[in-house]
Task: structure prediction
Amino acid sequence: MSDSDYKKVPAELIKQRRLYAATIAFIAVLYITASIQTNYNPLRFFFHMGSFFDFLVHGLLPPSYKLSEGLGAILAQNFGMALIPTFIGGLIAFCLCFFASYSTAPNRVSVKIVRALASFQRNLPSSVWLMVLVMAFGVGTSVGLMALTINTLGYLLRGFADVVDEVGNESMEAIDSVGAAYLPKLFQCVIPAALPGFISWLLYAIEINIMSSSIIGAVGGGGIGMVLMSHWKLFRYRTSFGIILVLAANVIAVNFISNYLREKVIK
Amino acid sequence: MPLDNNNTDAGNNILSVSGLKKHYGAVKAVDGVGFSIQAGEIVTIIGRSGAGKSTLMRCINRLVQRDEGSISLCGTEIANDMSHRQLCEMRTKIGFIFQHFNLVYRLSVFQNVMHGRLGYMPTLKGILGRYAEEDKEKAYDIIKSVGLEEQLYKRASDLSGGQKQRVGIARALIQEPVLLMCDEPIASLDPVTSRTIMELIVSQARERGIACLINLHQVDFAREYSTRIIGMRQGKIVFDGPSDTLTDSAVAFIYEGDSQHFSEADSAGSLQKEEYAFV
Ligand SMILES: Nc1ncnc2c1ncn2[C@@H]1O[C@H](COP(=O)(O)OP(=O)(O)O)[C@@H](O)[C@H]1O
Ligand SMILES: [Mg+2]
Result:
């Protein structure tokens, strides 16, 4: 290498920089066009700040926890709507993920099919799944659970399959070389190696579902979201705010516990 | 499959390979290889990286599917179309030791060693990991003989490189194999550990009467530890003889860089590009 070589920026890097610049310009243009189209003024919020705070102080405060449903029941429902889809989705994902990783699948076609299925389930948000299901079965908590389960299965399947991919061929090759059959190989080698990854994804699913279960309720999926919406529609803002605070505390607590468990499991 | 029934080969022929070929795209990784190994022999295969040593070994226990040629173990043909069950049964008779140890690192030393028995167990017992008491005792004896009894319940990830390879050796030994294949068993280890590991492999193989086939790239180790040396170059055997007949000029010929090899690598292209990416 000669002395002046460091001055020559590799073509790859220049290309990358141009790509970044073009992307940023593109997003800026999109933003401006969209703002004009929708008549959106980002400063409007500041002009109306006074009334916003007025509403915050007089409309929402102090939050009320006087719920006919009872605080405990609400919490239980929130947890239930997060845990049940995670459990069912996780169980199905566990059974299917071995068909979605090239290192364990019986053939390449099964990988393509299962991954496509997972991608379809994952890429429609649970609220969209809910609309589809509501059209078929009507509103209700069990329909909400179903929508959450479908979406959860979508990303858990993808996540589990990636975890199995990461186990790598080396240890599996060793188990093959001792003459082990397929299922013993899965249970003695792949699953022990993948377990922390599986658990980490399950914890993530609980975190996501504890949030989406409230949203899904608001659009007809029952559960805590429905309770919240019913108060909100009757202008019981203080009660609604009380529920929102409970939900927020719940989400934060679950995240906290989940992070703690994840660290324990992964080390 | 009656493995110890010597119906075709006379005497103590453990492994015979003939006309073995395997290609990857344009690369002839193994290009017409034939040799055989008798009981008690310790054979090393030397050759440059890319000569086809690993591919040869992987074809033997069918981790890799060969294109042509025949292989037999103790007189029984390792056919390309044998059932999966027969394949598993054959593999139990061949211990395989890897350069990168290939352990399940979240499991303990003991659990990793027990994996060597999976090929002998009914599927359900294998799934549940319910090993026979007798096998566990055997495992403990073997773990002692490779010097890991203090590490019995340690996680494999917490071991040093040399200790990890000892686990690999123990896992192969508990298979009670007739043939031990070691693919660069010391290439990831420091020189001092390399020596103790080579000594362990050779002494265990001798003690238990297991024939050994070892890929190495250190010529001095090959001369010191084996009874016979096979030299490979570009997928072909270019030397095969007792260790003390390996002359320096033979070594030079085995390792000689030749232009054809490089031009092939050039036309493959992709590897070279990847290398530039790190410059
Ligand atoms: N899975 C594979 N796919 C493509 N090429 C391979 C593969 N395995 C080995 N090769 C090629 O086959 C040749 C022999 O490789 P290998 O048997 O690993 O040699 P060695 O073990 O002597 O270093 C090399 O040119 C290598 O690039
Ligand atoms: Mg190799």
Chain A has a mean pLDDT of 85. Residues B 53-54, 184 surround magnesium ion (ligand 2) (CB under 6 Å). DSSP finds eleven helices and no strands in chain A.
